[in-house]
Amino acid sequence: MTIWVLYDIVNDKARSKAAKRCQQAGLYRVQFSCFLGTLTQNQKDTLQLQLEELINEETDKVYIFPMSRSELQQTVLLGQAFDRKLVTDEIRALFF
Amino acid sequence: MQLHITTYGTYLHVKDSMFDVRRKGDDGRVLSATYSAEKVTHILLATGTSLSTDAVKLAMRHNVDIVFLERDGDPMGRVWHAKLGSTTKIRKRQLEVSLGAEGLRWVRTWLLAKLDNQAGFIRSLKKHRLQHSAYLDDKLARLDALSVSISTLDGARVADVADTLRGLEGTAGRLYFETLSYVLPADYQFNGRSSRPAHDAFNAFLNYAYGMLYGKVEKTLMLAGLDPYVGFLHRDDYNQLSMVYDFIEPYRGWADEVVFRLFSAKKVNKSHVDAVSGGRNGGAKAGESTPGESTPGVSLNAEGKPLLVNAFNEFMDNDPIRYRGRNLVRSHCIQLDAHQFANELIGKTGGMPELTML
C-alpha cells in the first residue's frame, strides 16, 4: 500500500534518524519531513515501531497515512513534484 | 527494482544500510543515489564497475541477487548465499531422473511446449498479416509435423535420442526465425540466428533478451531447490548451466515476443546498436553462417539496453496473463512451473504439468 509519513521532531538527532529509518524502509523523501512510498503491512508495522522508539511523545508528532492506489492517481502534482511511478514501484529498472 | 550498473567507473557501496551508487557526472561532479535494500531485487553489473564487500553482505542478507554480465547480457556469475533453496532430496531425484526414461518425458514436454509457443506466436502474427497467411500456414504445418516427430520419439534414456531431438529442435528454430524475419520490415530482416557476435540488430537484441532470461531462470531453479548444472538434454560440460538451458525452452517465446514487438513497432534504430569486431568464439557458431564469411558483429549499446530491459521487465512483471486459472505475471508463472517440477520430482503431485502456452 502507498504510505505517507510526515513528522515534526524537535530533537535534531532523533529527526535525522527518523529520516534514515523511513528511507531504509523503502520510502522516498518527497519533502524535508515528508516521505512517500509503497510498503507491505509488515514493513509499515516495523517502521511504526522504530519511529515510536525515536520520538519524544511530549513534543513530537508523526503521522503515518495509508493511501489507496486510486487516490494516488487523483493526486495533483505541481512544480518540482515526486515521480509517481517511482513511489508506486512501477519503475522496475534503473541504469547507471 | 533492478539496479543496472553499466557505466565505466561506477561504484556500488553501502551507506546507512542502503545501497549507494556513486559515479562521476559529465561535469566531473560526483553523483550519488541511495536505494533501500527492501526495494532492490537485483543488482546487475557490467565490466569496469566496482562493488564493496559490505554491499555484497547487505545483498545476501536481503536476498538480493548480484549478477555479473557479459557485454551481450549473458550472466557469467552471480553472488547468492550458499544455502539451497529447498531440500537436498530434490537434487538427488533430479540426478536420478536425468538418467532414465522419466527425464526424456520431461525434455519432450519442454520442447513440445516451446514448439507450441512458437506456433502460437506465428498464429497470432497471422491475425494482422492477411497478405502473408499462405506463407505462415505453410510454416505452421511444418512446425506441426516436427511436433509430432518429437512427441513420438521414445527411448530408455535422453542420451539415446539426444541427437535426433536436437536436430528436430534446430529445424523448428530455423523455420521459426525464418518466419519472424519474413514478416519484419525490410530494414530489419535477418539471416538466421547468430551470436558472439550477433550479425544484425535483431540477433543482438535477442541474445541480450535470452541473457536476461537465463539469469531469471537460473534464480528460479535455485529458489525451487533444483541444481542449475544438472541437465537432462544439454551437455554436462564444465560450468554449463545445463538445467537452465533445458528448463528455459518454453519461455524463450516470451523473449522473442518482446524483441519482435520492439522491431515490428519500429522502436529500434541505428543509435541502439554499435558495430563490434570478432567475438569470443572467433565469429559465428558452426552451422549458423556460411564458412569463410566474415560479417562484422553488432552489439547493444548504452541506449539500446534500457530500451530492451524496460520492455522486457514490463512484459515479464507488469503484464498479467491468465495462467492455470489465475492472473499471474510471467515471472511468477516460471517460478510456479519450477516449484511444480521440483514437487513432481519428489512425488508430491501427480501427472505431468501443463506448461505455459503463449
The overall average pLDDT of chain B, rounded, is 81
What would the CATH topology of chain A be?
Alpha-Beta Plaits
Mean pLDDT of chain A: 89
**H-E order of chain B:** EEEEEEHEEHHHHHHHEEHEEH
CATH topology (fold) name of the largest domain in chain B:
Four Helix Bundle (Hemerythrin (Met), subunit A)
Major pleated sheet of chain A? 4 strands, antiparallel
Give the fraction of residues assigned to helices of chain B: 40-55%
User: Helical segment tally of chain B?
Assistant: 10
Relevant CATH superfamily of the largest domain in chain B: CRISPR-associated endonuclease Cas1, C-terminal domain
Distance between the termini of chain B: 26 Å
Poorly predicted regions of chain B:
279-293
The backbone outline of chain B, from C-alpha atoms, is: globular
- In the CATH hierarchy, what is the class of the largest domain in chain B? Mainly Alpha
How many individual β-strands of chain B? 12
Largest sheet of chain B, in brief, is:
4 strands, mixed
| Largest sheet, spatial ordering of strands of chain B | 1-5-7-8
- Named at the architecture level, the CATH assignment of the largest domain in chain B is Up-down Bundle
Pfam families (chain B): Cas_Cas1 (PF01867)
EC number (chain B): 3.1.-.-
Protein name (chain B): CRISPR-associated endonuclease Cas1
GO biological process, one term (chain B): defense response to virus
